[in-house]
Design brief:
The protein is mainly α. It folds into 2 domains: about 45 residues, no CATH class; about 60 residues. It is built from 2 helices and 2 strands. Strand 1 and strand 2 form a beta hairpin. The structure holds zinc ion. The site of zinc ion (ZN) has 8 residues, from loops.
Length: about 110
């Protein structure tokens, strides 16, 4: 959201105290300095928060998806009827363990 100078109509940045076009004090026309700082800080916190949320969700997925793979693999192995599904089950478990290992290593590397 952009603000405009009440004297000349020049477009102003949110934290501007003086108009860069006419040089007049515009601080009392825009919101107060402290609330501007708070707005900026809030925006930063929100960005940081969403970034953190994405990271957390990413790690949860990285850890959960291999677990789902592991469960599916075990399910396929425990089926007695089909030897082919047993082979797929072993492959899925192996793949899950590899993915899990790499996501775990990445998590360790990040910290
Ligand atoms: Zn102006």
């Amino acid at each position: 959201m952009s603000k405009f100078c009440p004297f000349c109509g020049e477009k102003l940045v949110d934290e501007a105290k003086f108009c860069k076009n006419c040089g007049k004090d515009v601080s009392k026309y825009t919101s107060t300095d402290t609330s501007n700082d708070e707005d900026y800080g809030y925006g930063m916190r929100v960005a940081e928060k969403s970034h953190t949320a994405a990271t957390v969700i990413g790690f949860i997925c990285a850890f959960l998806i291999p677990i789902i793979g592991l469960i599916m693999g075990i399910y396929l192995i425990t089926r007695k009827d089909n030897s082919k599904s047993k082979g797929f089950g072993i492959a899925i478990i192996a793949l899950s363990v590899i993915v899990w290992f790499f996501s775990f290593m990445t998590a360790m590397y990040m910290y």
